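Entry 0007
Protein: BTB domain-containing protein
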Amino acid sequence: MELHSLGHSPVASPVRANPLDAVERTETAVEDHPEDRMDPEEPDLSSAHNATEDLVEVYVQQGNTHKTWHLNKHALCHYSVYFHTACNHGGWVGGPLLLEDTDPAIFDLFVQFLSERGTEAAYSHDSQSEGRTSRLLLAQKRHARAWILGQRLASVPFMIHVLEKLAVSVDPPERSETVVSPQAVLAAFMAADTSSKLRMFFQDATAHALHKGVWLNLAYDSTWQKVLSGYPEFMKGVLVRLDEDVFAPADSLESYWADIGDLPEELEELALELKWG
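Output (structure tokens):
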């Protein structure tokens, strides 16, 4: 995912706005809660503070698919170290920001998160719209990709909320059957590093399903075969968990909460300097 600053048109030649350029050191208190704030105070997202000058145009593109959002700068920078450094220290001069190689549908989940935090709405799983197994599997894949996006944007609060949605989709309250998406597992192992909490989550979720006797079709599903052949460490982790006490991921959700160590290495120091860990 690349971040650029454009002129006044998304089709103009992009000018790179590197958020890893000079960063001013700020001293702010670091709290212990995983959703510690980047700034001493929550951003004021009321309509009175949502004037045009407070909006940032973000142009998201993947291949021929693209979409533009006008987002509150305070919320954007508050919940993402990546955007905070891009807007304040990366050479941004007020034009549109371009996010390349980013699925607009997945970025929209981040936009929903910003909006819901601003209105204090609950970020809950929509159990009714995703009550069928096929919808649960699709939701897991989307949420796994959203966690990966959160990692790239260095947004620990967003990663935690996505994890909560993943946990509900594995063990939905209206069903007795545990559901694990091979597409979500494959996405987690293709994009995340070997110590990723997202990988841990899916290894534990799979062990939990097998422990309950759920039929996952590991031997015949083509995507499961890609996981097993391409990432043998996945099943090794599952087998280790099966030899231990297996709990539903939702019962130990805090163990999968993201922290500063889950951010891209080049952004860890920036996150520490800016505030949170």
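Curator remark: Residues 124-277 form one domain. The longest strand covers residues 55-62.
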